[in-house]
Amino acid sequence: MKDNKETTKKDKQLDTYRVDYNDKALTTRQGLKVNDTNNSLKAGPRGATLLEDFLLREKIHNFDHERIPERIVHARGSAAHGYFELYESIEEYSKAGIFTDTARKTPVFARFSTVAGSKGSTDLARDVRGFAVKFYTEEGTWDLVGNNMPIFFIQDAMKFPDLIHSVKPEPNNEIPQAASAHDTFYDFVSLTTETLHNHIWVMSDRGIPRSLRMMEGFGIHTFRLINKKGEAHFVKFHWKPKMGVHSVTWDEAVKISGADADFHRRDLWEAIDSGQFPEWELGLQIIPEADEHKFDFDLLDPTKLIPEEMVPVKIIGRMVLNRNPDNFFAETEQVAFLPGNIVPGIDFTNDPLLQGRLFSYRDTQLSRLGSHNFHQLPINKSIAPVHNNQRDGHMQMEIPKGNTAYFPNSLGGGCPYLSSVEEGGFESYQERIDADKIRSRSESFSDHFSQPALFYRSLASWEKNHVIGAYSFELGKCTHDHIKQRMLWLIAQIDEALANEVAGNLGMKVPDDIERPINQAIGANANVEEHQPKKKKIYLEESPELSQAHTKFETIATRKIAFLVSDGFHMKDFDAMKKALEAENAVVKIVAPHGGTVVCDEKMEYKVDAAIMTTESVLFDAIYIPGGKKSVAALLNTSKFTKFINEGFKHCKAIAADDEGELLIDASAFAKYKKDKAILINKGAKDFIAAIAKHRNWERMEVAEKIAV
Ligand code: HDD
């Protein structure tokens, strides 16, 4: 492994907890050396087993308690260590050390997750992805707990349990796992129009990323930055992946879930392990306080984004993930993110979703991790020193000295002492509030259609087709017609053509009108028409930044290319292509009719990476078939190779062949589409590399859909 030699302060701290079992004797938990861990203590070889057996009791007792409750949402996750570094100080906006000191490398731990599925569910579920980053800053820990979509489903934390109960498996039979395509979710969505914006993002390609390394991250809420003078600016946080934003198709997602349910986890692990460190740039949308009411939507409404064309994203630094965890449980499972963890220079706003989160995360760690001392676990421990009068409780790991545990005190010399703002003491932003206490929602939160419509308008035609497919699949899985009808009517408020396409696939018609969903959030007595105007506001015709067609297509690093070969393949073709791809840091894998080795026409032996029966086309980004009569004849003899390339074509991937390799294409379902610009026969490595960098040839989609595999 190409490890990053620089160790951060956090890494040094973790090192004091790491235990290496190499060359060590097996012991009990008390350090007693053990001479037999295979047999229990018995009265005679055939028993009875004796209660005295403390070795048996300790081993079984520990095993019985190995599991902790999984996270109530975001249970399935993968994480890595790394660092954040700042390109330029933004001291005019924030006094946070992480945003002013360009000499620092702030250690981070980032965890990516799906939302609905259990800990052991597939990575490729259609879902939002969590994007949580723990910054171990010199001034204390800052957690930016976001998602890969810039908006959320609901506007008020009060609705979170309802949202999650509707999407999770249904309570009577615990079906379906890691899937939103069921009645209860659409019952809720169709009655809660504020969900439509986040929902259409999930229906888009953003809901099925190619890799955790190829998705954006967003802080979602509007936060505040505070500078040294105490002045505030509103801010939205963005993570922009260096590799661009790329996705798989739904057909691939379904098949990957069967072929390799750990596809994203493995991809992240292998990239870091091979020294191809994933990287994101941190960007800010900064809004002066004076502009708070300048927009057609409310900055405090987490179901709204600020189009980048209206407020550009200012790139200020980068995060690099360069080290895999040593232990999944101790690090990835025990890490506890709290949106309430902030540092001087960053502050909250009155976004009602954010305010509720400030309670929920600390609370949930208690049932998950079992003790309010979870901040002392190595992965959660701050690198800034911790001194306070909070005491005791389950699993206290420290030994606070002295006889005072209160403030003020004189017996302890007044310690631990308070810090002024100048000395780094945290002070909340002094926002003036003069209001009645009411249980209600602001009128400014009531437009639920304009932004999903903007999102849909901004997509490329192939992205729109994917959205149609996703809605059709999801609603097709619902069993109640009245739920489907409500959804169709609502989709029509976003885009009528979209709703008509989906209705056609469902064998239904878009209803002219429906019994209006009474949005409980706004109030049962509210005039729904007035609050959710059928006529959408168009404050921007399109926002190109929302489409993946405008992402980066610069690199093929870490892309996986399947080389289909059998004995007798042309070594010259093979070696030249492999060398060219590996020079770009792509990963070449030999797929052959059998495991073991294959022999080329020059009698050299090559190790097979995967026998065809153990792998699938959906696990690769592109396919290459070198020449060699005998080799290609063997591929033609094993029908799964034809299926392999048919699927590659269907999923719009680049396919290259040299010499006799073309015969496999001639035998495929797409033989008549050889002129496709990502089918490269005897074209050399350069064109193949360019086609792989494009991720997919989406222009092929119309014919690709006709390929039956
Ligand atoms: Fe949440 C976990 C992201 C709203 C309650 N949430 C959790 C994680 C992410 C998010 C990424 C996993 C963190 C990890 O890797 O450990 N959640 C969000 C975003 C939201 C959001 C971006 C809206 C903008 N969440 C939200 C609300 C509530 C919660 C409104 C409750 C009122 N979320 C939780 C939780 C979890 C959680 C139940 C489960 C595990 C945990 O906190 O640590 O407290």
UniProtKB/TrEMBL annotation:
GO molecular function: catalase activity; heme binding; metal ion binding
Designated name of the protein: Catalase
Active site: H74, N147
GO cellular component: cytosol
Family indicated by similarity: Belongs to the catalase family. HPII subfamily.
Superkingdom, natural source: Bacteria
UniProt KW keywords: Heme, Hydrogen peroxide, Iron, Metal-binding, Oxidoreductase, Peroxidase
Cofactor: heme
Binding residues annotated for heme, in chain numbering: R71, R111, F160, R357, Y361, R368
Residues covered by the Catalase core domain: 27-415
Biological-process GO terms, alphabetical: hydrogen peroxide catabolic process; response to oxidative stress
InterPro entries: Catalase, Catalase_AS, Catalase_clade2, Catalase_clade2_helical, Catalase_core, Catalase_haem_BS, Catalase_immune_responsive, Catalase_large_C
Role this protein plays: Decomposes hydrogen peroxide into water and oxygen; serves to protect cells from the toxic effects of hydrogen peroxide.
Catalytic activity annotation: 2 H2O2 = O2 + 2 H2O
One Pfam family per UniProt: Catalase-rel
Enzyme nomenclature, EC number: 1.11.1.6
